[in-house]
Design goal:
alpha+beta
Length: 123
């Protein structure tokens, strides 16, 4: 693997990212969550549980469909835009595969894009 980092550095990198990242394995078990967010989820409540439990009940069938599409290879990426509590969110689900194409899991990335001014770079 290019570059090796201690678990402490990897955790710090995860916390520094301006978005939430979940990784669930090929059995849909959450193995990584970068943000400890007492408002929504605590990492200790999420890690080791089903990724479906991190979503609202009414979206469960959609989550299952997304995971099925990623696992089967019908999709490599599935994206959603949603408005919730006055915020606009972009969520991407990415299939993670090994070099031989075997499905290893799903990387879910959520970002609050309500105010994207901080992403603009000066010219």
């Amino acid at each position: 693997m290019p570059g090796e980092f201690s678990p402490e550095i990897m955790a710090a990198i995860g916390e520094a990212l301006p978005f939430k990242v979940f990784f669930s394995d090929d059995s849909d078990i959450v193995r990584y969550y970068n943000k400890v967010d007492e408002e929504n989820y605590r990492a200790s409540d999420v890690i080791g549980g089903l990724v479906q439990n991190c979503h609202h009940q009414e979206t469960m069938s959609k989550v299952d469909r997304v995971l099925d599409d990623l696992k089967s290879g019908r999709e490599k990426v599935v994206e959603f835009w949603m408005n919730r509590e006055g915020h606009k969110w972009h969520t991407g689900y990415f299939a993670v595969r090994d070099k031989d194409g075997k499905y290893l899991g799903c990387l879910e990335v959520m970002q609050d894009v309500t105010s994207a001014e901080h992403w603009k770079t000066p010219h």
